[in-house]
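Purpose: get a first structural picture of the assembly so the mutagenesis plan has something to point at.
Setup: three entries, given in the order below. No constraints added.
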Amino acid sequence: MTNIISGTFKAFVAGVRQLPKRRMTMRYPDAQIDLKGYYTYDPKLGVAKAGYKGRHILWLDKCTGCQLCSIACENISQAIEMVKVNRAQPNNKKSIFPQVDYAKCVFCGLCVDACPFYALGMTQDFNLVSTTKKALVYPPEKLAIPPNVTRTKVEFKIEPDDAFHD
Amino acid sequence: MAAITNFEDFAKRILKIVFWLLIILPMVILPLFYIFYVLPIEISCNFNVLNCSQKIDWSLALYMFDPTKMNPLDPTSYISQLGLGATSPLFKVSTFPGLTFAALLSSMVIWYERKLLAKMQYRVGPLYAGRIEGILQSFADLFKLLFKEIVIPAKADALFFISVPFALMAASGALLAVIPISPTNYIALSPYSLLIAIAILGFFPIITVLAGWASSNKFSFIGGIRALYQMISYEIPLIISVLSVVILAGGSLDLMGIVNAQSKIWFIIPALLAAIVFYLTAMAEVERIPFDIPEADSELVAGWLTEYTSMVFGVINLAIYIKLYALSSLFTLLFLGGWQGPAPIPALAWFLIKTLIVMTIFIIPRGFNPRVRLDQLIGLGWLWLIGLSFANVFIAVILRASGLL
Amino acid sequence: MSIPAEAGLYTQAVDDDKLTVSIGPQHPGAGHFRFTITVEGDTIVDAVPDPGYVHRGAEKQTEYRNYLQSIPMLERSSLTDVTNIIMPYSMAAEELMGIEIPPRAKYLRMIMSENQRILSHLYWMAIQGIFLGHSTSFMWPMGDREMFIDLGQILGGARVTYSFAIPGGVRNDLPEEFKGRAIKTFNHFERRLVDYERIFYNNPLFLKRTQGVGVLPRKEAISLGVVGQTLRASNVKSDVRIDEPYNFYKEMDFEVPSFDTCDTWARCMVHLIEMRQSMKIMRQCLDKMPSGPVRAKLSPQQRTIVGEAYTRIEAARGAMSFHIISDGSTKPYRVKISVPSMRNLIALPRLLIGSHVADMPAIYWSLDYWPVEADK
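Result (structure tokens, whole complex):
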């Protein structure tokens, strides 16, 4: 019997102790988690550099149109298609560049791992909402624009009184 | 109408006739009766019907149609002559301390509950409806519910289905009618007010089963039966725990008398076991966690409330929260000394503060307790709570007989 | 009505006492899984599970993709346990390709694997709270899970599905901020676990609902072939990380819990203790990790030897194994996945029959059945 009373009282205390603490909820979209860095792949070393896998970024002057990213995605989600762009480049004779369909992309990043010319990366932009399906297909020129991530950012903190007693 | 071919149809027909006579017709006829027959008598006798010294003026019933009978220089005479003034029974029933006051308080308590639980759970509660921390969330929910369609399932018994919110609201309102909230603010004063309150509490199980059965849905039916088990097995400990308070108060069943008898010591101290039993049984009557088996989400979707949709659902929820408010005020009156407290704060404010504290204590177990299983709940009700409440009756008898209280 | 053996129309006599309730896919208490229980009063007399609602043919689809391209598809079967479902696949593929991955990659895989274990157990605890009606026990684990998701995001680059442990090693190396953040998270979470014990595990109402409920004796557990927490709670000390060590678990110091009460309470406690042990393993990994490469050079169209490979690891829910048969090309010939959820499903009718209806959610979720993983 005393177990029941003491158990209930301890549960009550554990619940009520939470009341004066700060709430964990983050007021999105005014405050967002700070995501650092692009996800890129180094073909010489054979490893990638850690970063958030969001929207792609395409460095147009490095892309040679080898289609390896499109082939890598072919059996995964078929989200990359090579399209012709009106841009003359010495290392891209056919002037074809990748176009990503974000309705299909699963953000696995294996296309970045397949590129041997340092041309493709993934940024920390995850806010790709649109009202039409056509707007989700990003042509190469749109992929080349770096993302605008200057919203108010809040580093997701653990409670100060708990976290610094190492 | 289908022909009656066997006893079942006959019973159904009789039940329909009884239902119409007892419930629907009075809801229509009684208000008309009040306006056109009772109100003139009351106004003519200056609201003192038992010692009526004046002749009854039947034309007062048509005041709203005859402007020559009112004094044009005194606007307030219109209101009080029509029986709508601040001291008239209509005002007391509908506004303060009656239905509107209870409904507003319950809406605020719904917001308060959501905020309190959210704080305990690491998150924010309502935040965006209203400038400060979502204070208008209940009203936003009310408006949303008004816009939805009222859906009555095809196989359900429409009459019984749609009468449930009316019945629940009526029962909750009737509970409020006998509870005084300060020495001068009450709707009805009666020497048996506690008995009336306990008797009205007995209506709720029937209405719950009606709701579960009329939905013609297996899950709702199971939920309704479970609610019936729960409420019935917790009524007896409730009554016995109240009995010990009645004994301590000298045998009076009047809530005013019980509060006045607590001027020396609040009854929570000699009747502590009864207070605990009343608290647990009241939580079971209102179906709060840890006793919310009829609405167990993970097993029965929403129990006996499953098929109720828009404003019907809103009215039922409001009725349940008004019942919570009524039971908290009963707890305050019976155990915590009602409106008694030190001088500078008026009696009404003391009552409201104490009731709010009691409601907080009702709400908090939702934050840290899981649900009790049905057979464990019934075992608790029939074994432990009856035993504890009987023990307290003996203590109360001993205290009273030895002259200590 | 027992589990049907042939296809066809089955008829059964209608009995007035028994009520057949279908806890279907559209039910808040079941996930994407359907089972039918027959209830007589308050006791369950028959329970027939009916898996297959989310079957997507994952095993067949691996035959059309090469080893690297199957990874995003396979990992989405078991959402809370992503790394652990592709790790045996990668290990079997490496065996068939005849390569050895560098040791630092094995340590990184271990870190990710233990992170996933904690995430899966926290999700389990959240849903167990809901099934028992305890709303705080839903919100707190989901909130604390965010800290571990952040750790996974720093390392893997995404919040839920990383595609991290591919054949050849892991995809990227540890960034510098990971270690400090991880130590802070572990310290904070160990303090939170004390609060969890107070509000949930030592709560008398929780004890009343789970002790003595759904007892699976030791002999039956072994003969039915259940795995994971169900097995460990039935007094069998069995863990693939200790019996058949892989990666570097031989050098880690941790203990495997087991209880002799064999009931739902024991299964819940096993989850709690495993979370603590996972954090212990992660701390040791962060200290002992050698430096070096993290990925062996492989082309996406790597050819394999002709043969079979079989690997088994300890996923968050139990022992998971992959059996790959290869015919020497870049695509596998046949992949057979054996998931812990499917192996525990056989215990569900055995435990439900004879118990109260109200015990059904507690027992069902304590087996940690994940329908998407079981249906592949």
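Chain A is about 20% helix and 15% strand.
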